[in-house]
Amino acid sequence: MAGVLALSLMGTPAFAANTGSDAPATYAAEGTVHAVAAASDLPDSISAGETYQLTADIALADGQQLSEVAGVLDGCGHTITLAGKPLAQSVSGTVQNLGVTSSGVIESSDNLGSIAVTLSGTVRMCWSTASLKLSGWMGEVGGLVGELAGGTVSNCYFAGSIDSMMSGGLVGTGSTGAVRNCLFAAGDSAVSMGYGSLVNENCREVSVADLSSASSLEVLSVDAPGAGYVWASNGAFPQLREESAPVVVDKSALDAAVAAAEQLSESDYEADGWQAFAAALSAAKQVIGNEDATQQRVNDAVKALTGAQSALAKKKPTAPTEVPSAAKHIKSQDDFISMNVKDESAYYVLDNDIVIDDEYFFGPSGALACTFDGQGHSVTFANGGGVPSLFDGVAATGVVENVSFAGQLKQATDGRSFGPLGKDVAGAVVNCSTSVSGKGVVGFCSHARRRRGVELLLHG
Asked: What whole-number percentage of the chain has pLDDT above 90?
């Protein structure tokens, strides 16, 4: 992963294969250490007593795979990109400090996991964003391991994708071994088909957005093995950082959020929302200026600022607005059905008075979230009361202006009162009038949500 320093190839401790017991793994003196700078440096198998350490991110050749890892594969914080097959068919030794992704979908009709098909050893301090697909009905799929056979998966996470009827976010199947202190963002459960004495402890499903949260990093760090790397946040996925390396805090996402926020104008938004937004913006700027701010504090500031910005509500217009050059025109009753009323940026104008006399008239579907400008014209309902309303309501961003309504509407089938704009108006109705009649008709609508800033500025 970017910005992560590789461990020195000399003097780096390796670890003994896990026996499946609850005892913590112990250091073991491995005889031979090999550097892996390219896919061609990776052998077909890693024998017991050998350690292979990555010195760079590598991409495997199509179909390249380790048949067995009986020794140690240490990613040293780097990433291996898989091509068509899992990293290893069998792991009886240790895979650690490694990230795994894939150049495409890895598909199998047998047990499937991105790091190991079968694990009787240890996978720890690893992550995977590989894409997996289980075809057929005979196998089980897990994000990291297909079958756990007495081994241990600890302090790892899976944030890739799995295409299968049933899947484990971490392990597909197993009756012995342990899965501890791990996270998964895909899969039905940590272990799809776990039974027997298999231990599933402190493993949680999280959203991709929450992977780098403080609580997620806390799970990944519980009883961490001291393998030379620790989990840290980079604002997106957790990353492996060399334990002795200086911490580099990435503030680029916060810089971008502040720059975008500063483009907004207070005069365009409701006061209550703006106050919370301004407070979040001020706090974000303080974090940018704080040289001691942690990555988690930076991430929290980004989340707070973008959340406050999303919650801003634009002020409702109190006077008719100017017609934009890109406005779309309504010339007949048949044009209403083609309105994209959910597009907040859309602006529709009436070019003339319109009489709705089609017995089978249908208005646009959904509440009006855009602007409907009558330009002083009228809409008259004259099809014998066959129209329930022109719109399904007016959303908070919707504007109806400069139009008058007349004629007759039919009775609402649910017995509720209504009007030509539907039942609920949360947006703005400006410089409009209505003389619409009919059983249950009450003005423009039955319910104007003034608590959300509705403006009803009418004439006539």
From this structure: 58
Spatial CA neighbour of 113 closest among 151, 57, 77? 151
Of 246-255, 331-340, 443-452, which one has max mean pLDDT?
Answer: 331-340
179, 151 Cβ separation under 8 angstroms: no
pLDDT tens-digit series, residues 52-70: 999 999 999 999 999 999 9
Q: Is the pLDDT of residue 154 over 50?
A: yes
Give 16's pLDDT tier (boundaries 50, 70, 90): very low
> Has residue 15 got a pLDDT over 60?
no
Q: Which of 341, 281, 286, 342 is nearest to 311 (CA)?
A: 281
pLDDT in tens, 233-251: 876 789 998 887 666 778 8
